[in-house]
Design brief:
With 443 residues, the chain is α+β, with helices and mostly antiparallel strands. It has helices at 4-13, 29-37, 63-69, 77-86, 163-173, 188-195, 204-211, 287-308, 338-349, 368-378, 381-384, 438-441, and strands spanning 17-20, 42-45, 54-57, 92-94, 102-104, 128-132, 139-143, 146-150, 153-156, 178-184, 217-220, 227-229, 234-248, 261-273, 278-281, 312-317, 326-331, 355-359, 385-392, 406-413. The protein is globular.
C-alpha cells in the first residue's frame, strides 16, 4: 500500500505513534502538543473541536521515521533517495481515487491549524500542489503553504522562480488562471519527493513512485485533468487567479517570522476527502519541517560530493543549522588542499548554505559536540578559515540582505594537518569498553 494509513500502521507497530483522544482545538493547542512532543513521536489527534476530521503531525520528525518513509532505514536514507531520483518511474493511472468518497465546497470543514501568535492566520502546511508544465506538458508537484481567506479561497505562497511560480507566470502572460490540484494527507514518501527540487520539466511524483517500489497509483481529476495520488486523504482542485492577491506572513523553517507579502489567491472548484479523513499538519520550524526540506538536499550533497571527491564519507545538514544553512562534510583526507576544494563544491551544490565544516573520519558529523571538538583541536583561524563575501544566500536568513539575497559564507577546515605528528590528534580509546555493562558494577 502507498497511502498515509499504511505508513501510520507501520509506525504504530514500532511504537513511534502517540494517539490523543482528548478533545483539542486547532487554535494553538495542536501546535503546542506537537512542539512539546517534537521529534520523539508522531501524534494522531482523534477528537478535534472545530472539525470532524482526524489530524496527524510529526510524521517524519526523526531520521528513523524518515528512513521508514523512504522504504529503508536511517542508515540507508541517502542510498534510497539518490536511487529513487536516478530511477524515477511513472506511476500507473487508476479509474478513481479513494478520496472521491466525499465531496464539499467548503474549505472550512478541514481542521486548519493556527500555529503561532503573530502569524497572519491558520495555515495548511502540508499541502502539495500539482500543476502542468507549460513547456513539456508534464506535471510538477511541490509544497506550498496556504492560508484560508473564506470558504472557497486561500492565499498560496510561491517562491519566485520555482516551478509552480513559473507555471503561474506563464498562464498569467497568456491571460489565464492556472489550474492546479492540491493534496493533504499522503504517504510521506510523496511528501519527501514533493520537497525535492527536481529539474525543470521533471515530475517529482515519479521519484515518489520509485521510493514506494512502483506501488503508487494516480487518479485523474474532473476539473483540472491533473493526476493525484489515488490514496490521498484530501484533494482540492481549482485555479490560482491571475489578477488577485492577498496579504500574509508566516513562520519559516528557522522558526522566525517572514515579512508580509501579497500572494496569489487560489479559488476552490472541488474538495474531496475519504471517509474518516486524516489531515496532515507540519509544524513550521520544527523537526518534521526541517527534515522534509533538508534531508533531500542532504541526499543530493552526499551523491554529488562522493562523485566529485572519492574521499567523501558523509555529509550532514546539521540540526543547529536548521537542516538548511550549515553542513558538515566527513572526509578521508589525502592532501591538505582537499578540504578547501570540498568547501567550494559544497557551497556550489546548495547555494542556501552559509557554513561548511570539513572533518576527519574519526569525527561524527551528526554530533555538534564532536564537530566542535574537531574545531578546538584541529582548526587554526588564520590558516583554515575560508570567508566568501557578498554572494547569493538564503532568503530565510534574517541576518542577511534579504532584499538583495546577498550574504557572507564561511568554510572551516577542521581536519588534521598531514604534516603534523598523527599521534597528537588520535582519540584515545579504552579496550573492551563496549563490553562493560554498568549495571554489573553499580548496584
Amino acid at each position: 500500500m502507498s497511502d498515509l494509513r499504511n505508513y501510520i500502521s507501520q509506525i504504530k507497530k514500532i511504537r513511534e505513534l502517540k494517539t490523543v483522544k482528548t478533545r483539542v482545538s486547532t487554535k494553538y493547542e495542536i501546535a503546542g502538543v506537537t512542539a512539546k512532543v517534537d521529534g520523539s513521536n508522531a501524534v494522531l489527534f482523534e477528537n478535534i473541536k472545530e472539525s470532524g476530521f482526524r489530524l496527524v503531525s510529526n510524521l517524519v520528525g526523526t531520521r528513523k521515521r524518515f528512513g521508514i518513509a523512504a522504504g529503508g532505514t536511517e542508515a540507508s536514507i541517502h542510498e534510497k533517495v539518490i536511487s529513487a531520483i536516478k530511477k524515477a518511474k511513472k506511476p500507473k493511472i487508476t479509474a478513481g481515487g479513494k478520496f472521491m468518497e466525499n465531496q464539499s465546497k467548503n474549505l472550512q470543514t478541514m481542521p486548519i491549524v493556527t500555529h503561532f501568535e503573530k502569524e497572519s492566520g491558520p495555515f495548511i502546511t502540508s499541502s502539495i500542489a500539482y500543476a502542468k508544465n507549460p513547456e513539456t506538458g508534464k506535471q510538477n508537484s511541490s509544497f506550498h503553504r496556504m492560508m484560508p481567506i473564506d470558504k472557497t479561497h486561500f492565499s498560496i505562497r510561491m517562491v519566485e522562480g520555482r516551478h509552480l511560480h513559473r507555471c503561474f507566470v506563464d498562464a498569467k502572460e497568456h491571460g489565464e488562471d492556472l489550474k492546479i490540484a492540491i493534496t493533504v494527507g499522503v504517504h510521506p514518501a510523496i511528501s519527501i519527493a514533493g520537497a525535492y527540487q527536481a529539474d525543470w520539466g521533471k515530475d517529482e511524483i515519479d521519484i515518489a513512485n520509485s521510493l514506494l517500489n512502483g506501488k503508487l497509483t494516480l487518479a485523474k481529476l474532473p476539473f483540472t485533468g491533473l493526476n493525484v495520488p489515488s490514496g490521498a486523504e484530501i484533494v482540492m482542485e481549482g485555479k490560482i487567479l491571475r489578477d488577485e492577491t492577498h496579504p500574509e506572513w508566516m513562520v519559516e523553517m528557522l522558526q522566525t517570522y517572514d515579512h508580509e507579502r501579497s500572494q496569489p489567491v487560489f479559488e476552490l472548484e472541488n474538495l474531496y476527502f475519504r471517509n474518516n479523513p486524516i489531515f496532515h499538519d507540519v509544524l513550521s520550524g520544527y523537526s518534521e519541517h526541517r527534515l522534509l526540506m533538508g534531508m533531500p538536499i542532504e541526499s543530493k550533497l552526499n551523491g554529488e560530493l562522493r562523485k566529485a571527491f572519492t574521499q567523501t564519507r558523509q555529509v550532514s545538514m546539521t540540526n543547529g543549522g536548521c537542516n538548511w544553512l550549515h553542513a558538515v562534510v566527513q572526509i578521508k583526507k589525502k592532501n591538505d588542499s582537499d578540504p578547501k576544494k570540498v568547501i567550494k563544491k559544497t557551497f556550489e551544490s546548495h547555494r542556501s548554505l552559509k557554513q561548511v565544516t570539513v572533518v576527519d573520519e574519526d569525527i561524527d558529523p551528526n554530533s555538534a559536540e564532536s564537530v566542535e571538538y574537531a574545531m578546538a583541536t584541529r582548526f587554526q583561524a588564520d590558516r583554515d578559515l575560508v570567508i566568501i563575501k557578498n554572494v547569493r544566500g538564503s532568503s530565510l536568513d534574517p541576518s542577511s540582505s534579504q532584499q538583495k539575497l546577498r550574504t557572507a559564507k564561511m568554510g572551516i577546515d577542521a581536519t588534521r594537518p598531514l604534516s603534523r605528528r598523527p599521534e597528537g590528534f588520535e582519540l584515545a580509546k579504552i579496550p573492551k569498553i563496549d563490553k562493560i555493562k554498568l549495571e554489573k558494577y553499580l548496584k
